[in-house]
Amino acid sequence: MRRVVLLVMVVLTTASAVRSTPIAAPARLRLATWNVAWLDRAEGGGHVRRSAADYERLRRHAGRIDADVVALQEIDGPGAARRLFDASVWDLHLTGDAGNRQRTGFVFRRGLPVTRHPDVADLAVGSRRRGADLTVHLPGGDLRLLAVHLKSGCQHDALSADREECAILRRQLAVLEGWIDARAREPAAFAVIGDFNRQFEPPDRFWAAIDDGDPPEADLVAVTEARRPACWGGRYRAFIDHIVLSRKAAGWLVPGSFRTIDYVPADARFEAVLSDHCPLAVDLDTLRAPPAAPPRLRPDEAAAHAGETATVCGRVAGATFARTIRGQPTFLNLDRPHPDQPFTVVIWGDDRPAFGDPEVEFAGRAICVTGLIRLYKGKPEIVVRRPGEISTGGVTDPPPGRRP
After folding, report:
1. Distance (Å, rounded) from C-alpha 389 to C-alpha 337?
2. How far is CA 147 from CA 140, 295, 301, in A?
3. What contacts 365, CB < 8 A, 6 or more positions away?
4. Separation between Cα atoms, residue 211 and residue 232, nearest integer Å
5. Which domains does the chain have, with CATH numbers?
6. Helix (H) or strand (E) holding 10
7. What is the pTM of this model?
8. Cross-strand bridge partners of residue 136
9. For 357-397, what is each residue's pLDDT tens digit?
């Protein structure tokens, strides 16, 4: 009898050790986000009433994401998440506000080594949604993740707008910026991911506030920048779901890995019971060699590199401060004046004080500008917000008296 007891104890001890041993953390991690639109734990319950077949469609779509970590929004607790993500494969970390039917959180591959942090409860302005905070331990270093679902209704209005939705978003912005600045002073890479309910298109001041490069690690990259959503046939003008990476995390970004996981055509007629959000995903390689310096381009080469970060060099052939246009932009047109310019540098009015009088300072000068190339009405441009993004050092100026 004693031998039987000992044998049982050995078996139980071994099984326990197997269950508790974490999987080897991958060097390459797929990170995704998905607002599942009022995912209730029960069939026929909640704001979006779904049948068993609807849950199965969502479950199949969750499988198409094929990620290691997925940030989730609008989740009615663990029971709802488990309807899409099998407990034998996925572990959970949801915010602790159990009475909230729109919880935020993560699912991640079972056994992936993580540290769970307390909720960022101050994001729940007006008893709304908290932020879920999680660190994933990877071979190339730790990745701290914050999943958010911010206030809706102020997607593109001025943050100063006198409306309740914008007032709430302003308060959430202060909390979010505080979290980002605190993480930027720490050694780990970090990312903020989820439904920001905010379009980051220039001259958006929400994006400018969090991407201020102070501390330096808070020089952020939004992988959605200069892209147009393809979700549900491309009906949306701009992204409100975002994956935002710190400088170190951006160095891990695998080029060309960003994707939107669109719904299959056969599911189009079930849109009302699926989600108005499509999952977004990127790949991070924590052992990736540091990225090479951005390519150096002529102004007439820039259009072919839209969506890429590059350095564009040319001579300012026309400079205008458009003070009467919304956002009060300054335009520096390279090589040829408007409307024939092959490339434009844009400085928005809120950023202009840091540059002095750029239409005077840079007029006729040869400059280089580094940033993300975007197309506006078919013309390439780079939006700059900090003086360090424009350089004249090492660029040949014309002899005195010969500036155009």
Report:
1. 21
2. 22, 33, 38
3. 315, 316, 392, 395, 397, 403
4. 29
5. 28-285 (3.60.10.10), 296-391 (2.40.50.140)
6. helix 2-20
7. 0.89
8. 114, 143
9. 999 999 999 999 999 999 999 999 999 999 999 999 655 54
